Structures are given as structure tokens and as C-alpha cells.
Amino acid sequence: MKKTALFLILTILIALTLGACGNDSTKTEEKEKVDKENTSETTTYESEDGPVEVPANPKRIVVLSAFAGNVMALDGNLVGVDSWSKMNPKFDLEGVEEVSEDNLEKIIELDPDLIIGLSNIKNKDKLNEIAPTVTFTYGKVDYLTQHIEIGKVLNKEEEARAWVEDFEKRAKETGEKIKAEIGEDATVSVIEAYDKQFYVYGDNWGRGTEILYQAMDLNMPEKVKETALKDGYYAISSEVLPDFFGDYVVLSKNEEADMSFTETDTFKNIPAVKNDRVFEVNMEEFYFNDPLTLELQLDFFKKHFLNK
User: Fold this and answer.
1) Strand 233-236 with 197-201, pairing
2) Considering the entire predicted model, what is its pTM?
3) d(CA 39, CA 59)
4) Which domains occur in the chain, in start order?
5) 170 Cβ partners below 8 Å, 6+ apart?
6) What is the pLDDT of residues 261-281, one digit of tens each?
7) What integer is the mean pLDDT of 56-78?
8) How many CA atoms does the CB half-sphere of 213 hold within 13 Å?
9) d(CA 308, CA 101)
10) For labelling, which of 40, 66, 110, 277 has a CA lying 20 to 30 Å from the CA of 232?
11) Left (φ > 0), alpha (ψ -120 to 50) or beta: where does 50 sit?
12) Burial class (CB in 10 A: 0-12, 13-18, 19+), 147
């Protein structure tokens, strides 16, 4: 009798164990099936070049120019980025490879399922053979609409729109406070020292120009309007640099820039310099106009214009 009871108990335990294993196996198979379906699902993005079928949930994204910060802000998984993005000290790109459209073999090795870049990249046809490729013409839409378009590509338009609406509100409020602090008529210049050349910027060329001139509606010096507004930037020599200084100046530079001019009496006697209204920024951090960089720029302007 005891042997029969023990046999029954063992039989029941084995049955329960097999049943649990079966359930785990079924759950694993179902999860793998869902993951596969999510990976294989696609959506259509209406690009400048026509409709492009892109992954609904891209897993391995390569950005060849300008838009790495947009993808990062939307939690996209980057496997390759352009050199300028890679050198940005504020971008967390550890483990992400540096790539270019000239090195197709490297891109193939990364096995991307989506490629994003500017419309002037080379080898676009060959890139399309590697993965769906979406490109944008810089400045064709404004910087905030651009983020929404990236959101559409990544199937995250709702998240992109939510950030844009919130940022617009915060930037406008900060701009109103800055105007109250520096005066309605005060002018602001954005100038960059790169190598041995200086550049002055319009209202859509990164470096904080979008926030200062578009979101905050601060004033641009007339000389800047005449030369840089149309093309976005204008190259100038150090000799005429004082002519382009506003009441306030955002001076973008990197370590290699020739800043010897700042030691001259001509520079030191510029009103913005004498009044300590020149705010230096790291070019590599301020270069872009993606959400991550825009947040950095907005915080910088709060601190330097409002002492906050």
C-alpha cells in the first residue's frame, strides 16, 4: 500500500514538473514570436525622396550626420554615428562606432536596420541596399519640426511632439525674462572661432542660434542680419570682428582655435568685452540643435543671462 501511495505521489510531482516546463517553453516561444514580429513590422515614412519603408521598432540605428542627439532623446539604439557627434563630450556614445558614408564596409559590419543622414551624403543608393535610409535637407523645416520628423521615422511622433511643446513653452518664458533683464533693444551675436577663422551665425545654424533668435526672439545686430541671416553663417576676419559684436556675445570655440586676437587692445575695448558680456562656450558641445543640445544651451543661457 505504501509503495502504491509513493508511486502516485512521484507520478503527480513528475506531471507537475513537466507541466511547468511546458508552460515555460510555451512562454519562451511566445516571447520569441512577439520579438520577431516586432522586429519584422514596418511602417512607411513619407520622406523628401518619397515613401520609405522603415522598421516600426528599429533596433540598430546608424546616423551619418547631425541627428544623433534627436535619436538619443527618443531612446533610439545607436550603433554608429558621424565624427562630429562622436566627439561631443555631452553625448553618451560609449560602445557606439564612428562611421561615415565613405566606409560602407564598416556600416555593413554594424548590421543596421535603419540609416539616417543629411540629403547631401554620398553613396545613398548603396546605403539603401544596406538598410532603409532616410535623409533630410538641412533647414528645409525648422529645428523643432525636424525633431518631430525624426520621431515619425522612429515611430515615436507622440513623444517628439510632447517634448517640442514643453520646450517651446520653457524657452519662450526664459526669453521673456532675459528681455526684461537686458532690455528689449539689446542685441546678441553668436560668433565662432574655428582654426584661424571667425564665423558669425544667423538664426538656424546651431550654437544656440535657434533658441536666441527664434524661440526667445532676441535681437540680432544689423551687421549680422545683412551678412549671415540668408546663408546661416558668414566668415569674417579678426580685423572686422568688432563690427559684428552685439551688446552680448556667445563666443563658440574649441581648443585648437587661434584666440590671440582676444589679447589685443582692439578686442579688449569692445563694449561687450569691457562689460563682461562675452559668454564662451565649447563648440563641440554647442554645435547641434537636437533636444539634448538645446536643453544644454537653454540651461547655459539661463545661467549667463539671468545668473540662474
Assistant:
1) antiparallel
2) 0.85
3) 8
4) 42-155 (3.40.50.1980), 177-306 (3.40.50.1980)
5) 298
6) 889 998 999 999 999 999 999
7) 97
8) 26
9) 42
10) 277
11) left
12) buried
CA 198 – CA 194 distance, rounded (Å)? 6
Cβ-contact 63, 80 below 8 angstroms: yes
Mean pLDDT over 147-157 rounds to 98
Taking residues 159-174, report their average pLDDT. Answer: 98
Adjacent-strand bridge partners of 45: 52
Characterize 151-188 residue by residue with b for buried, 16 or more Cβ atoms within 10 angstroms of its Cβ, and e for exposed.
bbbbbbeebbeebbeebeeebeebbeebbeebeeebbb
pLDDT grade for 307, boundaries at 50, 70 and 90: confident
